[in-house]
Structure formats: C-alpha cells, structure tokens
Amino acid sequence: MTEAIEKTGGCQCGKVRYRATIDPAQAYLCHCRMCQRATGGVSIAFIGLQKADIAWESGPDWYASSPIARRPFCSNCGTPLGFAFNDSEGMDITVGSLDEPYGIEPHWHFASEKIHEAWVDTSNLPRKKITDYEKLNQMWIDATGSVPE
C-alpha cells in the first residue's frame, strides 16, 4: 500500500459531495460491459477503497445495476460516482469525480477480455486544446461569463 491521501469529489452539478481516503495504488481501468453501458464509455477509471473510508457529505442516489451490485450517481445531473458489490466492505469511486484527479494513474486493467484496444494507447493521436476552439469558448462566455474548467 502506498500512502493514503484524502480527496474530495462530487458530481458535475454539485448536488452530491464526498470526502474519501484513498490509496492511489488502487486505481485501475474497468472494461467490463456493465461499466461500459453504465458510463457510455469504453472503460471507466476507478479507485478501490473501503466503504468506511468515504463520507458522503450530500448523498448520492443508488442504482441497483445487477442483483449483486449497485452504483452511486447523481439523480440531478447523471454523473456516475462509483460501484459497490452489495455484500462487500469495499467499493470503487470514479477517478473523474475527484475534484483533483490529476496525478492518479491506473495500475491494472480489469475485464481485460473486453478492452477496446484502439482506445487504450492514444498517445499518437493529434491533441486539440479547448482553448483553441474559439467559437465554443465564446458560447461559454456569452452564457456564463467564463469558460468552465
């Protein structure tokens, strides 16, 4: 185990908030079809932790995604926040829901038989910065006064 750190996180709209003690070495990518369907992505970045190590400051709603597990999410904005087996002391939270996810790196792939290989190593693809898309930036400025993070 690496050194545990405290992180905060929540959903896109701010309705759901949490504080968690995590071990960055427990970060991984899940490629199972249930996670792909639950998120609409080709994989999901998770960090495993004990249920006792997360405090929901404003609680999520829970979706029974199967007979053996459920997923916390925000019913207001739809943000997926994690995964938990019903009969386990552990659970996962989504890396993307952390307020500061930077520096967290995956340590393994789960459900590797379902990996969409073309999406794993994308380092050779051209990169486009959001700041270079002037029309989108102006739309945000006109609507809210600033460009979101």
Automatic annotation (TrEMBL):
Residues 7-108 form the CENP-V/GFA domain. Pfam families: GFA. The keyword Signal does not apply. InterPro entries: CENP-V/GFA, Mss4-like_sf. Keywords: Lyase, Metal-binding, Zinc. Transmembrane segments: none annotated. The keyword Metal-binding applies. Belongs to the Gfa family. This is GFA family protein. It comes from Altererythrobacter arenosus.
